[in-house]
User: Fold this.
Amino acid sequence: MSELSKVDIYRQIDVLRQSLLDLTMRNQLLNFRPRTMTVEVKDAELAEIYDRLVLKQTKTKLLQFIPRGEAVLSSFEEDEEDTNSEKKENEILTSTDDEGMSDGESEFGVDKNIKISDLSLKTDEDVFNDDQAMMSGEIDEELSENVSKDIPSNSDNAISPDLSEDSSPPDNSVEELTGEQTSLLWESPPLDQDTLEKNKEIFLSTDLTPTELQRRLFYINQRARSVMEEQGYNILYLAIGFLKWKEENGSNGFREAPLLLIPVELERKRVKGSFKLRWTGEDIITNISLQAKLVDNGVEIPDFEMPRTKEGVDEYLNQITESISHEKGWEVIPKVFLGFFSFTKFVMYKDLDPESWPEDMPLEENPLIKSIFDPSEEEFGVGFQEDQVDAKLSSENVYHVLDADSSQISVIEEAKRGRDLVVEGPPGTGKSQTIVNLIAELLALGNTVLFVSEKMAALEVVKGRLDRVGLGEFCLELHSKKSNKKDVLEKLEHVLRNPK
Assistant:
């Protein structure tokens, strides 16, 4: 490859990389605005939160949000299930039919005759109808705008999104939707002051009422779980430390952008229990969008290296303070917010950085990259034909574990020969079945297979079929909650200790 063509490839790749980043002010990572799907932590000590959430996290002492002016259920709840609460959780919610609505239907299109235990499904399908935005990897702004319209709120101090009057639900929408029994979701018994004082380091103060706090955390948890189950990645983060900044021209005034994002999850054991905050174990993320945007201002935001002591957080923020010292009015603000942020495209952005590739295998020498940017005139000829299956294949050289027709077999044989191909077919034509057979064939030949899917359901279907034919032990799952370092290392240890 000539030097000129190499430079041209790098230039085109850089254009593609930049298109993966949303550097407009619609991006919550550049222009963060509190919404009804966020919770602010008041009077936050950033280093202490990092210490308790990341460095000293235990199963018995998880961080917990508390409302303003009073405390909620202790972090030291008993692990036993509350049978009365479980019974109440499964009671049917009913309310008076809305005027002009059919039985079981509300003005928001949500079935009233549902169980609280079913709210995960109903909420995901009817209230948070923005899966397409998440699937496309669009930045958090669109997600926030869509879901915030449907988050019910009756708190005078709730943070309101920028919505028109006709698109915003009434303040008492939840009460009208589910009736008085909604109190099961929003109530938490008070915590005595002695326990609060003794364990104050695990509590995160907010400026929300008890009802509003529980309501927000409930819907935040539902949305985060929905995306994890359907798409296989986490969107819930605790943002610690914000940068007050403005664009180079300064025409639109100052913005605020998060600096560090800790991947977290919410959990609670019982319906009337409080929500706990847990670090997922995944890497803490530096705001990549902000790093790219501030290049225009000549400001460099360093990567966060996850220090082993809490002092490392202060040192990191001090580095940023020093790097922005020449910018008038810029400052690091000790704010903390729980909210949604999408990083699905940022992984691709980093992966396409030529400097991230090893010297002995540069990006421009990758066969797929070469075929895209420097297409060859070579003709590959006719592929494996369906009518040649019986003539060209011997049964002793076939390692299918599921039934396959001639069209599926021809696809498998093409892939075994190292051909790049795209296979299309409507639902029900056996694509996942073909994938399972292809994995089995390649395993028999001593190859390693990476199976990637945008949909979580596709991964689960293939893994389930591999389990049923006895090949599940050969799989290392690197998605959703199964991708944290601890679980991956445990799986590797299991394989090394139990070789097949």
Remarks:
- Residues 71-179 have pLDDT under 50 and may be disordered.
- The longest strand covers residues 255-267.
- Residues 1-20+346-378 form one domain.
- Strands lie at 39-41, 63-66, 92-93, 114-115, 203-205, 236-245, 255-267, 276-279, 285-286, 331-340.
